Amino acid sequence: MIKKEMLYEGKAKKVFKTDDEGKYIIEYKDDATAFNGVKKGTILGKGIINNKMSSLLFKLLEEKGIPTHFLEFLNDREMIVKNVKIIPLEVIMRNVAAGSLAKRLGLEEGTPLKTPVLEFCYKNDDLGDPMINDYHIKAIELAADNEIQKIKEYAFKTNDILVEFFKDRNIRLVDFKLEFGLHDGEVILADEISPDTCRLWDLKTNKKLDKDRFRRDLGEVEEAYEEVLKRLQ
Ligand code: C5P
């Protein structure tokens, strides 16, 4: 397969066309941003860890019946994926109160939630990714009703699978963000699943093993990413 021109460069990834129309190559970078790009930095080796972890988790989810964009691990920083048209939604799943939910609802970080919570945000940097609901999604035509139902079904199922998977590796899956896309008219899971997009706490000590170490200047950022991958492999 031949890597062709870059289609898109995001904060943490680049997407390239290939000589095969149905396939893209995603390249994972070490660049890190937070607070809608206000905080910038580098997490050395992050691109390699996020590529390996996403590959491993997409493979697991495919085996459990969730359709994903993942096709093949190419090398340390690159994976081959199906071409998708990303639906501009951040789909957030939460099991424990943390981050913006803890703030918004006045809950102490670490408070378990009685049931998993799904939130939608409109993926739009200029607007700061505002939270929206199904009605907004339909009203501004971000996705159709049947697509929203599929997204919800896959998001809850992904949560069930990942909570168990991480628990077996002594990690609490506090919350995470998913993105979906359309491929041949079907909704499939896309983007990445990594310590950049999940809150992962050590099951016993609650030590943060994710991007909050970078966002909140907690130190040992690289070590945390490495620790997660070590426990997953
Ligand atoms: O900040 P907040 O508490 O809303 O984040 C919830 C989850 O979604 C966290 O795991 C965070 O890493 C993830 N997230 C993300 N990309 C964003 C916003 C949130 O990966 N743009």
Topology, please?
Blueprint: E1 3-9, E2 13-18, E3 23-28, E4 31-34, E5 39-42, H1 46-63, E6 70-75, E7 78-82, E8 85-86, E9 89-96, H2 99-105, E10 112-122, E11 131-132, H3 134-139, H4 145-167, E12 171-183, E13 186-190, E14 198-202, H5 212-215, H6 221-232
Helix pairs in contact: 1-6
The structure holds cytidine-5'-monophosphate (C5P).
Overview of the molecule:
The chain is α+β, with helices and mostly antiparallel strands and 233 residues long. The protein has two domains: 3-82, Phosphorylase Kinase, domain 1, CATH 3.30.200.20; 85-219, 2-Layer Sandwich (D-amino Acid Aminotransferase, Chain A, domain 1), CATH 3.30.470. It contains six helices and 14 strands. The protein has helices at residues 46-63, 99-105, 134-139, 145-167, 212-215, 221-232, and strands at residues 3-9, 13-18, 23-28, 31-34, 39-42, 70-75, 78-82, 85-86, 89-96, 112-122, 131-132, 171-183, 186-190, 198-202. Strands 8, 9, 10, 11, 12, 13 and 14 form a seven-stranded antiparallel β-sheet that branches. A five-stranded antiparallel β-sheet has the order 1-2-3-7-6. A two-stranded antiparallel ribbon has the order 4-5. Strand 1 and strand 2 (13-18) form a beta hairpin. Helix 1 (46-63) runs parallel beside helix 6 (221-232). The longest helix is centred in the C-terminal third of the chain and has 23 residues, at 145-167. The model has no long low-confidence stretch (mean pLDDT 98). The structure holds cytidine-5'-monophosphate (C5P).
What is the subunit arrangement here? single chain
Largest sheet: 7 strands, antiparallel
CATH fold naming of the largest domain: D-amino Acid Aminotransferase, Chain A, domain 1
Rounded to the nearest angstrom, the distance between the terminal CA atoms is 27 Å
- Topology pattern, helix = H, strand = E: EEEEEHEEEEHEEHHEEEHH
**Level-1 CATH class name of the largest domain:** Alpha Beta
> How many structural domains in the coordinates?
2
What characteristic shape results from the CA principal axes? globular
Total number of helical segments?
6
Number of beta-strand segments? 14
* Rg on CA atoms, Å: 17 Å
The overall average pLDDT, rounded, is 98
The assigned CATH architecture of the largest domain is 2-Layer Sandwich
Low-confidence stretches: none
Unique ligands? cytidine-5'-monophosphate
Helix content: 25-40%
**Which structural class do the helices and strands define?**
alpha+beta
CATH superfamily of the largest domain: ATP-grasp fold, B domain
Strand percent estimate? 35-45%
